[in-house]
Structure formats: structure tokens, C-alpha cells
Amino acid sequence: MDVHGTVAEGFEPVRDAFARNFATLGERGAAVAVHRDGHRVVDLWAGTKDVDGTDPWEHGTAQVVRSATKGVAAAVLLLLHQRGHLDLDAPVGHYWPEFKAQGKERVLVRHVLNHRAGLPVLDHPLTPEQALDPLRGPEAVAAQAPAWEPGTDHGYHALTYGWLLDELVRRVTGQGTGAWLASQIAGPLGLDLWLGLPDAEAGRVGRVGRVEGPEPTGGLRARPKRSVTEAYEDPASLTRRAFAAITPFPDQNDPAYRAAALPATNAIATADGLARFYAALIGDTAGASRLFTQETVRLARAEESAGRDRVLVVGTRFGLGYMLHGSASPFLTPVSFGHPGRGGALGFADPDSGIAFGYVTNGFRKTVTADPRAQGLVRAVRGALGLQT
């Protein structure tokens, strides 16, 4: 496999790890980018643009990043808070009165971001067509009763997170999350990152699909008790119901799906676009203003939820909108914050080292987090920096 691109001196192990993903882990097409203190130190790509094709992956090929979308969307709410337009400790119903139904008066804005709202499932799942309608998802979660007392426990809001967040943004700004992201973040910074793909960019996006490879040895797949896979197979479990809030799940290669804006699942990005987004959050994008103040970075990475996740059935850690470093989401150091995408993609920032990381792939695996391809790359970055595991 020919690996294209460049690495700065000292980051050669990342190239080696990237090549191993193709040689031993079933990678078909992928890219990885790493920025450090305003400088791009890794920019690599290889394989095919489409998981089932032969056209080469090119510099600038983009892919659906699935739940890595959540970290991108979280920045919108945090920036609205930073600018004084949104109070994290206000009830959601203050901005969205219809949401108060079914005993949800005490759900706070921060509960949406830290997965404590108690709303990971829908009693009446949406069809793909309904899910792409920007009104139907928020209507469904507004009518839904909580699965537990909001604020008392946490569980991953796999799909409902997007509708909760999007309606808050719409009520506060008059725009959907995708439009606000384009006008306030991606556009000004020139990021190859979209939530709602423009027609003009459609030709850059590869087809995605399932690939097989060796079983992961860490994260959510390696545990002695009930695994997330076993929980997913139980139709009555919160796990199964959370991921089935849209049934069946839309075809991720469908132009209509890619053109819609689902802030939990369907952002599209290049690896460098995802890395530059995280670099901008912590102030390391060369020539651009820092997006997050020090206080907002603290909010993003301060632990809000930790322990056994009622949906993912293992221990997870969340700040406000971001997964935090831990066994379910191994990042670079304990201060890292970011978000994986189910099946492979990963984006995160590490304020202490000045690292911002982006990895995208067209080959989705069964992993929910801790994909072995992404983790091999993270370990290589850690080694290049001389950091302990």
C-alpha cells in the first residue's frame, strides 16, 4: 500500500502505524492529520476513495464521521454559552417551551451535553424520511418521557443528542446547527467540515461500508461482563433502543442523508478538517483566532459524567459535549477531550501538548469506541511525543 503525504521529523512512527492499518487491520481507505502548536506535523492518506471502489483516495477526500459529529456540534452550544446567548444551567424548556412535557421541566441545557437528560430512546422510532426532517426529531424528543430521572445518571444519547442540541441552537439563533457551524466556524476558518453537505462538495466524499478485521483488544469490546454487543442484541435494552431511534438507519451513502444536518451522526470532514477544528478550539490553528476561551476549554474537559453508562453498559466519561480520556475512549493524555465515531473516525484535542488529531476512514468496523486503527495512530503520536501510556 502506497502511503501519501508528509510527517514532520520525529513523527515517522505515525506513518508506520498508518501503513500497518492497511497491512493487518483491513483498512481500505483513510487519512490522518495531526497539528501541534499551529503546525501540521502529520498529513497522510492512502487506499481507495470508496470502500468498494478502485479510484484512489486523494488529498482532500472527505468521509462521513458518524458520532465524531457530536464533538463538532457541541462546540456550537459551548460557543453560544461563551458569547452570552445560552445559559448551561437554564432548563431546556426556558428556550423550548414544548419540551417541558412528560415531566422534563428540570432537564438542564448541560444535561443535553453530558448525556444526563434521560432521553436516549424514542418509544416511537422515526423512519429515515422522518429523521431527515429537521422538525420531526425535536418533536419526538419533546413528546418523550425520560427513561430515568434527568440529572441523576448518564447514558449515551446516540441519536437523540442531535435533535436535542439542534433545536436548542434553532431556538436561540434562528438557524440550525449545520448553518450556524458553516457561518461561524467552518466558513471563517476554511475547514473542510460540513454538517449538511453542499452539492458542490459531493464529488469529494467517498462511499462508506462495513469492513472486517481482527477483534479489538481494548475499549468496549473487551470486558468480562455483558458487552455492548450483547446489550445491542437485546431488543428491550436501552442500548438497542437508543441506536434504533431511527429505524432502519439511513443509507449513509444516500445524497439526501449527506445533505441533511443530523448533529449526532452525519458530519462530513477530511482528516485535516477535523484536526484543524480541534486545533482551533484550543487556539493552535496558525493565523486563526482561538475559538474557546480557557474557561470554555475547562468546561469541555471537566468531568460531568463518569461510571457505568446506562446505554453503552461500560464505564464512560463525559465533559460538556465531549468524551474524556478513559478506557472507553483512550485519547492522548488525561486532559484530552474529543469524540470517536462508531466504526472508526476520531477527533480530539490535547491542550497540554498542543495536539489536535483527526482520523477518517471509509471502512466501518463493529467498534463503538476505541477502534484499533485509530488507537494505533494515537499510540504512535504518544510515542513520538515521548509521553507515557
Explained architecture:
- It comes from Streptomyces swartbergensis.
- This is Esterase.
- InterPro entries: Beta-lactam-related, Beta-lactam/transpept-like, Beta-lactamase/esterase.
- By secondary structure, this protein is α+β, with helices and mostly antiparallel strands.
- The chain has one domain: DD-peptidase/beta-lactamase superfamily (Beta-lactamase), CATH 3.40.710.10.
- Helices cover about 30% and strands about 15% of the residues.
- It contains 14 helices and 14 strands.
- Strands 1-3-2-13-12-11-10 form a 7-stranded antiparallel beta sheet, sandwiched between helices.
- The longest helix has 14 residues, at about 70-80.
- The chain starts with a strand and ends with a helix.
